Amino acid sequence: MQTAALNYKLIKKIKDERFDEESLHLYQLFINIGTRDLQVLVIQENIVLLLEDYVFPSLNTNQELLHVLEQLFDAHACLRAGFWKSITVGIKNNKYVQVPQTLFVAESAAEYLKFNAHVSTGHEDFLFNENSRSGAITVFAVNKDLHAWINTIYTNKPPLFVHQSSALIEGVMEASETSTDHSLYIYIDRFKLHIISCKKGKLFYYNQFIVKQFSDYVKYIMLVMKTLNMDQQTSRVVLWGYIGKNSPHYHEFYKYISNVTFGERPAYLSFGYIFDEVQDHHFFDLYSISLIQS
Q: Which residues pair with 39 in a beta bridge?
């Protein structure tokens, strides 16, 4: 694979020995697409069989993203296959809004989004998915060309499109169901910071922040903790995402937040021993996509 020429790089690939390309009709495919990265997950009956993580180092436009995705899919052994049991596509962007189910009207999707983001009816489609645990509908925008291209690939099995924020909310609410304290849950993506607050399985707060330098992480976390009247010394903070347990960034967190721990893998998924090389707190948003039902 000529990653330099194709403008994508495979960072991680783990394939369980039970994965069989002749059995794709029994597998669920999950694809998580960001502006500069992509993850792939394959599951059979809650058993994780394949995980892949790609980055796109030098993209600036939606057309460049689509071009790289076309090349990646063409070179992949099975992403273009059309006979999966189900296909779910996660979209990672900042064009989203959470709307209470009782107030949601599908025809007003674009109007809801205008409260949170600049939208273009000429270049974007407006989609939504249900968050069963929070009782909300996540409305989000996706580039028209990307949306059409994915639907063209999977004509036999139309994919379910979901938003990263929805997956994270569902995943955190699932993980916090047995927690009795008011905790802060943090997901560190490659280019964003997501902060969620739950107590006894109920959602109190969610937001995402664009991060340009490491000091931004601490600034936004402290701001949210202050807003929620949480104590930086005693309040429990759970951390998922692209951060190492022994990294300088983690030790910097610990200077400001005393009660910080790393989150675990979701209990509803089963991982073979080959996945032990992946840290438990990585890929939480990718795993959580599987909680969202059509």
A: 32, 53
Q: Strand, helix or coil at 141?
A: strand
pLDDT at 6 over 60: no
**135 pLDDT higher than 80:** yes
Is position 114 within any domain?
Answer: no
What single string gives the DSSP state of each residue in 54-121?
Answer: EE-TT--SHHHHHHHHHHHHHHSSSTT-S--SEEEEEE-SS-EEEEEGGG--GGGHHHHHTTTS---T
Contacts of 116 (CB under 8 A, 6+ apart): 95, 96, 97
* Residue 64 falls inside a structural domain: yes
Same domain, yes or no: 31 and 151: yes
The three state secondary structure string of 31-44 is EEECCCEEEEEEEE
Q: Is the dihedral of CA 39, 28, 148, 166 positive or negative?
A: negative
Element (H, E) at 271: strand 270-271
Q: Is the pLDDT of residue 255 over 90?
A: no
Mean pLDDT in residue range 71-80? 96
Q: What are the pLDDT digits (tens) for 17-64?
A: 999 999 999 999 999 999 999 999 999 999 999 999 999 987 888 899
In this structure, are residues 86 and 165 in contact, taking their beta carbons and an 8 Å threshold?
A: no
Q: Considering the domain boundaries, does residue 107 fall inside one? A: no
Beta strand ranges found along 134-212 (DSSP E)? 136-143, 160-163, 183-188, 192-199, 202-210
Question: Residue 117 above 70 pLDDT?
Answer: yes
Residue with tokens 């080959």: 274
Total count of domains within the chain: 2
The pLDDT of residue 198 is 85
